[in-house]
Specification:
By secondary structure, the protein is an alpha+beta fold. The protein has three helices and four strands; from the N terminus they run αβββαβα. Helix 2 (54-70) crosses helix 3. The chain is globular.
Length: 112
């Protein structure tokens, strides 16, 4: 995922949390906020220390970034997304995380 497609600053995260909408399943929570002046989507990832040690957390983030990369052409553009990983993600493989992400995005009607 390109760097311009990532949310980095705390202000960006807080805007999405306060003004955006959310959907969730057992593994992931998705917050999203439409951005009219943007021609691409941006993603911020949050994986708590409750999930596991740094190796586990980085693996979950890597899987989520790769899933977004593969779904890039199917996702609505001009949105900011924040994904929060819940505890079951620590035991999931890549395909399960991608399926869970697809489920949350389709539930929120953000897949084309």
């Amino acid at each position: 995922m390109r760097k311009q497609h990532r949310l980095k600053s705390n202000d960006d995260f807080q805007k999405v949390f306060k003004n955006g909408k959310s959907f969730a399943n057992r593994q992931l929570v998705l917050y999203y906020l439409p951005k009219q002046d943007q021609t691409y989507f941006r993603v911020g990832l949050s994986v708590s220390k409750k999930i596991g040690n740094a190796v586990v957390r980085n693996r979950v983030k890597r899987y989520l970034r790769q899933a977004f990369h593969e779904l890039e052409i199917d996702i609505e553009q001009a949105y900011d997304f924040v994904i929060i990983a819940r505890n079951p993600t620590k035991n999931m493989d890549y395909h399960q995380i991608k399926r869970s992400l697809t489920h949350v995005l389709s539930k929120s009607k953000l897949l084309l």
